[in-house]
Known about the structure:
Structural class of chain A: alpha/beta
Distance between the termini of chain A: 39 Å
Strand content of chain B: under 5%
Largest sheet of chain A: 7 strands, mixed
Oligomer: heterodimer
Low-confidence stretches of chain B: none
Strand content of chain A: 15-25%
Largest interface: A-B, 15 and 8 residues
Largest sheet of chain B: none
Order of helices and strands of chain B: HHHH
Distance between the termini of chain B: 72 Å
Shape of chain A: globular
Strand order of the largest sheet of chain A: 3-2-1-4-6-5-7
Helix content of chain B: over 70%
Number of strands of chain A: 7
Helix content of chain A: 25-40%
Radius of gyration of chain A: 17 Å
Radius of gyration of chain B: 20 Å
Shape of chain B: elongated
Amino acid sequence: MNTESDKDVAIIIPAYNEAGRIASTIANIRKFTDADIIVVSDGSTDATASEARKAGAIVKELPFNLGYGVALQTGFKYALKKGYKFAVQMDADGQHDPSSIRALLEPVRNGEVDVAVGSRFYGGNYKAPFLRRFGMVFFAFITSAITRKKTTDSTSGFQALNRKILEYYSSDSYPVDYPDADVLIMLHRKGFKFKEVPVIMHEADSKKSMHRGFKPLFYIFKMTLSIFVTLLRKEEHL
Amino acid sequence: MTAQQKVFALIMSAGLFLLIIELVRRRRLAEEYSVLWLLTGVVIAALVIWYDLLEWLTRLIGAVTPTTTLFIFGIIFLMLINLHYSVKITKLTSQVKNLAQKIAIDENEK
């Protein structure tokens, strides 16, 4: 374990009813970094917030359930306000292995890119239901084609980013209803640099994955539309 | 168009008009929203009274009877009003989101 400090990093974890596993997720992260851990409870009706607080995280509670993207953006806004230089977004269910945080932060810290996207598809054997996997491959292909950058996992919610991106993600341009491949395309069109970094991901240990509630077919439709209008938009002002 | 149809359409549009004015008067409906509705009532009334315009419009859009023209325009208006609401709801959703985020962020902050 290294001695480098990550006190300028905010680890943002959106959580909805994750009582029972949020504490272990936080404890696992603690083994690898001393970064501040910000849990955004998305209107959870269980003990998520108090468990996270007890485990030593900074907890922000949305008054009602607003969805993954909104919770995530709340974290970005908070990190921006508090002056963190970098942020890492992770899932609450322990799917994202915290041993990969450093590797993910590395290219962002040294200024190589603005966003590092953790990809589970380098050498791993990640399994997902067929339609979901089809969506992943399909959008990874489209994203690669548009951004001319190798993208294998455009749906990844394990990312490291710098302050410029915190600012951008906190604006109304951020598609809070379903941030995904369209965000990468937006970044590309705004001239931000990103790259994929191999990370370790585990299968979520329950049916409730990060894209909860979204039916795969609707996801494919929504994302296609979102990418299409993203391409139609002129440069937006921040 | 029979006289009966005309009377019915006029009564309906007059009724709609009065209802909207009354709702605005009682502050149950914001002026902003009333405009589109009032317009709907006025246009229906105008088409019924100014029959030549209705016949001209009917030929223009290729409808068979003037009643169809009235219905078509009624439906188009309703669609526009609904679209207007969708736009409003989108804006409200975004405002509620920003409010909720602000509450979450500012809570327990010294």
